[in-house]
Write a structure and sequence with these properties.
It holds the Pfam family GST_C. This is Glutathione S-transferase. There is one protein chain. This protein starts with a strand and ends in a 5-residue tail after the last helix. It is of the alpha+beta class. Helix 1 runs parallel beside helix 3 and helix 4 packs antiparallel against helix 5. The protein folds into two domains: 105 residues, Glutaredoxin; 105 residues, Glutathione S-transferase Yfyf (Class Pi), Chain A, domain 2, CATH 1.20.1050. The protein has nine helices and four strands; from the N terminus they run E-H-E-H-E-E-H-H-H-H-H-H-H.
Length: 227
């Protein structure tokens, strides 16, 4: 059995999509980041950076439980555990890992900053809004050019696509329109109709959409001194 510590964020949905693609059985343990669940001592033992997602695989490589935090590491772990969605060929494998790292080190953090300064900052800072909106556009351009002559980011559908797709879903939060990036749009539209992607995105879909307004306890838990 796999325990998934989860909340309805792009990084969380990476893992529910991956698990659905692989057909692995798991149970969801909600970590309500608006209420500060991520700071609980038991969760911090699993995810010392107090971020979701995290997992505990009770059937680890040596038959003993193994905990993993950081969404990219979790995707790599499940790919290696199952031998799927990550090529064994060295060149093809490195293509996937490069684009996974592009998402983890570039697209995720920068698009997250666009979310923050466009939606959650206690005051509108024009420089920050322009800075991260332009960076979002640059990153979308990188992806669009990459997809000009290929169906997916790194050959076949892989963990690189699974990592990137959830961060493109809130494109309007980032000040973008998909019609501006026709290759990215084709890729996005193809992925969103995959049955496993729809299954992964349905996890906790009944959860009330959260909003962290400056000054509220939710905002403090996510962006304030507590975070």
């Amino acid at each position: 059995m796999i325990d998934l510590y989860f909340w309805t964020t792009p990084n969380g949905y990476k893992i529910t999509i991956m698990l659905a693609e692989l057909g692995l059985h798991y149970r969801v343990l909600p970590i309500d980041i608006t209420k500060g669940d991520q700071f609980g001592p038991e969760f911090l033992k699993i995810s010392p950076n107090n971020k979701i997602p995290a997992i505990v695989d009770h059937d680890g490589p040596d038959g003993k439980p193994l905990s993993v935090f950081e969404s990219g590491a979790i995707l790599l772990y499940f790919a290696e555990k199952t031998g799927k969605l990550l090529p064994s060929d060295a060149r093809a494998r490195m293509e996937v890992i490069q684009w996974l790292m592009f998402q983890m080190g570039g697209a995720g953090p920068m698009l997250g900053q666009a979310h923050h300064f466009r939606r959650y900052a206690p005051e509108q800072i024009p420089y920050a809004v322009e800075r991260y909106t332009k960076e979002a556009a640059r990153l979308y351009g990188v992806i669009d050019r990459r997809l000009a002559d290929r169906e997916y980011l790194a050959g076949d559908y892989s963990i690189a696509d699974i990592a990137t797709f959830p961060w493109i879903r809130p494109y309007r939060w980032q000040g973008q329109e998909l019609d501006t990036y026709p290759n990215l749009k084709r890729w996005f539209d193809a992925i969103k109709v995959r049955p496993a992607v729809q299954e992964g995105l349905a996890v906790m879909s009944e959860t009330k959409k959260w909003e962290a307004k400056p000054g509220t306890e939710s905002w403090k838990n996510m962006f304030g001194a507590k975070a």
